[in-house]
Design goal:
- With about 950 residues, the protein is α/β, with parallel strands linked by helices.
- The protein has 46 helices and 25 strands.
- The protein has a 7-stranded antiparallel β-sheet. The chain has a 5-stranded antiparallel β-sheet with strand order 5-6-10-8-9. The chain has a 4-stranded mixed β-sheet with strand order 1-2-4-3, with helices on one face.
- α1 packs antiparallel against α3.
- The longest helix is centred in the middle third of the chain and has 20 residues.
- It is globular and about 90 Å long.
- The mean pLDDT is about 95.
- It holds the Pfam family Fer4_8.
Length: about 950
Amino acid sequence: MLDLAERLSARVEGDVMLDAFSRGRYATDASFYQMMPLGVLCPKSEDDILAAIDIAREQRIPILPRGGGTSQCGQTVNEALVLDNTQYFNDILELDVENMRCVVRPGIVLDELNRALAPHGLWFPVDVSTASRATIGGMTGNNSCGGKSIHFGMMRDNVLSIEAILADGSKHHFGVGRNDQNAAYAGLQDDLLRLGAREADEIAARFPNVMRRVGGYNIDALVPGVAPQNLAHLLVGSEGTLAYSTAIELKLWPLISGKALGVCHFPTFYQAMDAAQHLVKLKPQGVELVDDTMIALARDIPQFRKTVEEFVTGAPEALLLVEFIEGDAAANAAKLRRLEEMMGDLGFSWKGTGKKWGGVTPVTDAGLQGRIAELRKSGLNIMMSMKDEGKPVSFVEDCAVELPDLAEYTAGLTEIFERHGTKGTWYAHASVGCLHVRPVLNLKLDQDVRTMREIAEQCFDLVARYKGSHSGEHGDGIVRSEFHEKMFGPRMVANFEEVKRRLDPDGLFNPGKITNPPKMDDRSLFRYTPTYGVKDFETALDWSAFPGSAGGFQGAVEMCNNNGACRKLKGGVMCPSFRVTRREQDLTRGRANTLRLAISGQLGPDAFTSDEMAETMKLCVSCKGCKHECPTGVDMARMKIEVQAARAKKHGISVHDRLVGYLPRYAVWASKVPFLMNLRNRVPLLARLMERPTGFTAKRALPRWHARPFRDDEVKARGDVRAVLFADSFNRYFEPENLRAAVRVLQAAGVSVEVVKPLRGVRPLCCGRTFLSAGLVDEARAEAERLVEALTPYAEKGIPIIGLEPSCLLTLRDEIPALLPGAATAKVAEHALMFEEYIARQKDNPAFKLKLKSPAPKVLLHGHCHQKAMQVMSAVEQTLAMLSDTKIEKIESSCCGMAGAFGYGVDTHEISLKMGEMGVLPAARAADADTIIVADGTSCRHQIEENTPRAPIHVARLLEMALE
């Protein structure tokens, strides 16, 4: 290993990682397998790749090219040198708009490519559900398909050529035509075409006659008469086992505009499957299945709950989403009418009962279409959001049969599952007869592993009976490669091996996939091996909603199924640190994998409290984006608290963390000498001198202590109390004008409000968040106890508890229930509201009279991460909509980057600035002078004010300005 590290470091520019923590983060993909790689390289150039192949060949070390690491079948795990193309090797090399083609590096993500193509009216239409993180290289290696393949074809149909490096280090252009100037390539081409001619009859007899066939190698591309013969298509679907693709030429299509969606409701699953063969006659661009299990699970996920209510009528057992792109609204409307007529012809009516109930919900609104598409794309991961030990397992999940056989085939699968005491979760590309079905199993149990094997054997026998494809979309990997002989016969398997030997004679590239595979149920290759286990340990927070050791913490960590949704680079919040660094380490998935390996002892003793674990968590800004946006609900912000608490208990905390954590305790005294406390900001030399001992960067001004902090006795209730105000430490001591503005607005609306005061002692109340950020859980719990104790009498009377700072008020709903589980805490959490939530809920209250005028022609709104994660941004927008003559525009951005004390750290402030530059800071700079910028978060306002010419305000101050 040392020799490998030295040789790689001497010859490559890219990042070389051979430590256990880094290798562990690449040991899994979205399958249930785990194989520890020998090392990881993030190449920056072709020269890096050539050097790595050369060194690996000499040292007889396998090479594994890797994209987003989202493979379902174990294609992207191996005991090899992993080359991660996503960090650097990800650009567009050539774009030919006129001829609708482009050439890209393999590491470019599909969504990023399409964002670059959109201004030119073009797109790449192989729209896989993992488009936000799937790379073109990975899609090529997998022969990906997507939901619109019936219209646009699969990856193979849209790859024109590939530049690739063979195991001997030679570079070749794989495509149409012959290159006699390259004798090695010409000889390779001759050999492969001879194989195609020799095996033409066997290929015709053995390859299934379905569109969705991605199993084995595409040697049908070598058969005479295939015009034109394109050797690139042999590399498509080869899962990195034949060559290393360095540049991929793609066929592009005109951008789609004007879609229509018909949501067909069915009373039974069988009827939906039977109807698919009829609905495709209308020539839609896709027909997608959503079953009742997915509907129920989506309803339990905050991100999707509202969307489900918008498009699901009644209680269907299955939906078929039928999408049309006819070019204009009138033609789309005609298709929807024809769809409704066809559903009627099939015997379904909204007025019907039993098996006659059903119909079409037309969806023409582009926004709702997008939300439905997002739900559908997250389908497989929604299925994985079950918190039980048993999970839907991917191993027979994307077989494909011809449409007339689909209903009977699914009935046969259901019978197999029931025979083995389980059930399947269903999700499908019904238009092409390709099913995503996952039996629910617990692969930590020997019995369930045996059951998986039996189900696989029986399901593939069923597929063969219907002359279908056992691998219809997600490839072969470890799961399906061993079944090639059952599906194709021994002669075809020998052909695959001949192709592998001709291109990669020494088995350098990703061995054990497609040819010479291990058994799919070899538990030594599983994520959860027979010896896997987590020793019990005491946790700081309540994890009882999950199974497993450490009070359920194990189960919470294991909720990460490696789907990689956190790798998205645009939209939503998560994962802001990854968007800056592009490193697997700085990713929700990477952190979750590191936690799982650490608590199960796979990274050595004391890994949970190690420096490496601290480094893994270092750039997590606790934005809670993952809590809302991760399809399986991984809450890394809460998990980080556990890590910090354990580390603080073992190693203590730094001066920096002590200054941050104990702020609410010393703030009472510091606020009495604001001139002294603010001196650091006015004297640059003092800031530089204090930088090392305090850990606060001299490049930023710290929050300014106010000369007149907020006092609880400033507010006196006028009559019976109708609301209570929680004055948080940040607004109390640094921006008291926000609390005073909130009181004025509430009083102007006729609300009798008072400030909650401690029942014990005189020190003001605090939520404990600063202590949590430093890992001081006992201190945080003490603060939480004081706060809950003081708020409980109000909550019991049903009095709303109002707060201004999202990170503080929303702690009452999130972290405090995990610190202090119990009825009183739950009651307080139920009544805790953001200022704008309270106002939005008074819409139909005649006693709430708030008369407002427009304070500005336009308001630019930035949402705090916790507002987004806890889904309270809509309340802010509803409140601002009361300003009838003011245009409201929301900044679409991830975390602002300040994130409490994160932006002030010596070693984190630069990352903080880069986060801000990804969205909020450019938007603030571009705002017109008469536009008011609103941001509820203290950190958000400081980030904007520090780095732009603008000074944002809290929404309470905006409403105060608008009071008549």
